[in-house]
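Changelog note: in this version the structure field was regenerated for every chain. One regenerated record is shown below for reference.
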Amino acid sequence: MFLGIDTSNYTTSAALYDNGEVFQCKRVLSVKQGERGLRQSDAVFQHTVNMPNIIKELCKDKEISLEGIGVSIKPRWIEGSYMPCFLVGESTAQAISSFTGAPLFKTSHQTGHILAALYSAKKLDLIEKPFIAFHISGGTTEAVLVKPDKENIISAEIIGESTDLNAGQAIDRTGVLLGMKFPCGAELEELAQGSSAEFKIKPSVKDCNCSLSGVENKVKAMLENGENPCDIAKFAIDYINVNLEKMTLALLERHGSMPVLFAGGVSSNKTIRNNFENKFNAYFAEPQFSCDNAAGLAVYAYLKSL
């Protein structure tokens, strides 16, 4: 049995991987109405309060025999990548490892997202060959070239990204402007389903990078003009969808045909998922494995133990 722990800027989560099955518990961090995120000090405090209850809930009615622990200690596995909120997960994992003797394996939040998506899509075999993975969330809008890595299971090289606003930020800022509670993805998607509006959106993509800042300006203008909230919601999602599609075409042209995987909270959006499954045969995690979670860290511990 393998334990995964993740303390991102949005969610406290822990998961167990046991004989191919994942059990997970998580709690979304609380954000005050009207605000668009959390200060790191607030995130650290909430993780510290949440973690004991998350672990207790995860282990309830289970006979625990740990063979390894996986934990995210930074956003990406690159030099200079750092957020204080991950210290809560790292210290918790280190304490459990010291007490139980189970080996501790440290990796990045992004690696956890990719492995959770592969597990959910039943495509863990992709770790044996190169593929393109999109990590699309509030903190990241990146396309990475994933390759097998003997030491770290996979390596991820950024080959495309947003040059300004992240996709999750665009969605959350739109939702907050519409009076929604942060994070806004699920509520915005539900609202957008009430719209039949069609938009002519010109993607803002240069080389393999996109710019998403235009969506916020357009949303503000639509609000000032009194346009229907469901049309505004649909526009924001369509804008992101069109830009990601253009990015994908550019990436496949540059790097050649290879599998495409989507991870991160924004990839749970049905409009985006349906478009990319139909046009690119892309692989997606189920929603519970798309958003921030520790499932991929538990899988990472399992793979490191092989």
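Spot check on this record: The longest strand covers residues 141-149. Residues 229-255 form the longest helix (27 residues).
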